[in-house]
Amino acid sequence: MIGCKEISCVKETLNKILNKYNIEEKVEEIVLERIDKLAIYDNNKIIVNVLKYDEISNEVAGESEIVSSFLLLLSLYSLVGIKRTEEIVRNEYGRESPIYKLYEILF
């Protein structure tokens, strides 16, 4: 997975990836709210669909690394779209990685 168990780590990892790929946006906060989409980026904040988050969290019995990977994937998706998210995850973690498999399930 991504080696994170807390949202602050996800945010730091995300910002490192954005910097590495010369993506100008910066994420200062990741929050959970009721929204119609999976996730949206607004003013340096990632807003994640709380219902989808709860569903994933319950499915994996709160396994923090899987939940963190889910947050990273949705954050990337909200910033760069599906295709670029796939490219970044494949390059950073590999096609056989658990986070890439989670990407395939989600998208």
Topology of helices and strands:
Elements (H helix, E strand, L loop, with lengths): L6 H14 L8 E5 L5 E4 L2 E5 H10 L4 H30 L4 H9 L1
Helix pairs in contact: 1-3, 3-4
In a nutshell, what does this entry contain?
This protein is of the alpha+beta class and 107 residues long. Helix content is 59%, strand content 13%. The chain contains four helices and three strands.
Overall description:
With 107 residues, the protein is α+β, with helices and mostly antiparallel strands. The protein has one domain: 2-Layer Sandwich (Zincin-like), CATH 3.30.2010. 59% of the residues lie in helices and 13% in strands. It has four helices and three strands, in the order αβββααα. Strands 1-3-2 form a three-stranded mixed β-sheet. α1 packs parallel to α3 and α3 packs across α4. The longest helix has 30 residues. It starts with 6 loop residues before the first helix and ends with a helix. The model has no long low-confidence stretch (mean pLDDT 92).
- SSE sequence, one letter per element: HEEEHHH
* Continuous helix count: 4
Side by side, the strands of the main sheet go: 1-3-2
Share of helix, binned: 55-70%
Terminal-residue CA separation: 17 Å
- Please state the second-level CATH architecture: 2-Layer Sandwich
Beta-strand fraction estimate? 5-15%
Q: Judging from the principal axes of the Cα atoms, what is the shape?
A: globular
Q: Outline the biggest β-sheet.
A: 3 strands, mixed
Unreliable sequence segments? none
CATH class: Alpha Beta
Helix vs. strand class: alpha+beta
The count of domains is: 1
Stated plainly, the CATH topology is called Zincin-like
Number of strands: 3
